[in-house]
Fold:
Amino acid sequence: MNITHTPVPGGGVIHHFDTHRGDHLAVIISPTGQRSLIVYDRQVPDTPIATVEFDQQEADQVAGLLHSRPLAERLAAVEQRLESLLQGVRD
Structure:
């Protein structure tokens, strides 16, 4: 997925991306940490059809739901990789 990052006046950042199915989305991150998810019209790509605003806690919870693997599983994989790297240094 190609994600473009553009600064927004006032200090925020907007991240635009397209799904493999052709949906165009954006996430705006404000300087206060609020996140807005924008869904664009497929026929008129520059026209937003829905905006959902999340506070930081809500954004974290939604991000957790969207992960393909649970946090504990991802953390275990990182720990295993770190142990493997440390073992290589010790040998």
The CA atoms of residues 39 and 62 lie 16 Å apart.
